Amino acid sequence: MDPNGQSTAVPNDGTGDREARAKEILSKDTKKIPEFQYQKLMNETARNWDLSGCWSGLSTQYEQRNTTNFFKDRHWTDREFPELRPSGGEKSSKKLLAHSRLPPSRRTSELGCGVGNFLYPLLDINQELFIYACDLSTRAVDFVKADPKYAEGRCKAFVCDITTSPLTDSIPGESLDLISALFVLSAVPPANMAASIENLKTVLKPGGIVLFRDYGLYDAAQLRFKPGSKMDENFYVRQDGTFSYFFSTERLEELFKVAGFEVLENQYVVKTVVNRKRDLSMERVFVQARFRKM
Q1: Which of 141, 162, 265, 273 could lock 290 by a disulfide, CB 3.0 to 4.6 Å apart?
Q2: 44 to 39, 40, 216, 237: CA distances (angstroms)
Q3: Residue-level pLDDT at 43
Q4: Domain containing residue 51
Q5: How far apart are the C-alpha atoms of 58 and 116, rounded to whole Å?
Q6: Sign of CA dihedral 276, 182, 215, 53
Q7: What's the total number of domains in the chain?
Q8: How confident is the model over 3-12, as pLDDT tens digits?
């Protein structure tokens, strides 16, 4: 949805036509960036996240007053993932909790917490949650900790590169009931995805669940990348040096099954986003999934 509320999303079932158009567009972009540029971007990952477009150009005073308001709160997360709701919620939530074998009081980790736009709405609606929140960006974690709502009795924020730093340095091993990975794994180079999943597995209890949502194959954002942005198959670099990978459900399932997870849900969510003010429409494709540690 447009930040100014000018866009609406509606379901889209035109899978065949959508895929055909997308394949035609992507077939024209086969050239990958040079190896030296690829390695340079890999070495500057953390730096580029701290200097990415969402942060650059902000004065200190502006940051203190307005930056956390720039990012929209993710109030949709508990609707899409009932596991995050209080245990005394509606019947559908109770059924899902029973199916997932989760306790009423749950310890959770949010990967890629940003400035807290997922963290704080969840803490507000569910007093039973304790959330470990981590992000690659030092600046993002600083914003989380500076928020007046930050309370160490309910959350812990820390900097972590999940591709290289053990989560067990900050979270007790096999202590979590849930891990949310929302638009996080797409920023990880494909070669590091398996190691990242193994990393999060170390802090998840047996029977614990990973809640996943990220960019799907043939999403409008993938089709908008210009030539010279492609790093690998379905993997691109943005102008600010950050990465974006677009998942197929098959590839995602393979990654988690190899790591020892059971698939509870793994599907595309396809919507046509219409901006009436600009008379534009685009087809957004996401993958939504749940994986349980066996």
Answers
A1: 265
A2: 9, 6, 25, 12
A3: 85
A4: 7-293
A5: 18
A6: positive
A7: 1
A8: 333 344 444 5
